[in-house]
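so im writing up the methods section and need the Putative lactoylglutathione lyase record in one place, dumping it here so i stop losing it
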Amino acid sequence: MAYLEFVTLEVPNPADAERFYAAAFGLDERLRVQSSDAPTSGFRGFSMSLVVAQPSTVDSLFGTAVEAGAKPLKAVAKSLWGYGGVLQAPDGAIWTIASSSKKDTGPATRKIDNVVLQLGAQDVAASKRFYVEHGFEVTKSYGRKYVEFSPPSSPISLSLYARKALAKVSGVSPEGSGSHRLVIGSDAEPFTDPDGFVWVPSA
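--- predicted struct ---
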């Protein structure tokens, strides 16, 4: 069974990006950065999601990210599914911070329960088949709209959305071209998926 170990964001200035992510989220080796000037414009076709236990944690992480230079795309708010918001890091990556809970159940923390890489696919069903053939196990699937992979032990969860739907929930236009500015590390053999996302061996 294949699993996702880390993501590498390609950024113009790695030192600046490292300072931002340390101040905003305090993420560990699951998130890496490397220098790149590859041309890109508009929506890059993916987003990162931080899943936390309660609204106060959402507020804390969202607040420090904005203070560190992130741009809010969707203000933090309650919704049918819980509580959360969306922002864009200075390097251009889109981040969702969310909790399924609408009420705090304990003291405020900054604990991140799960990190999810959300990839926008032109054809979710075709991409699902591709990933299954490369050793990924489906844990949830909703037709051509959404697919979730990865065992519970995976450092980062992987999901597929229809590209337009992912852009909509992220608060941006689905139009975009050029580099994804993303490299994904896993225990699988290297490959490039149908939407151009590059995977490399974690070793």
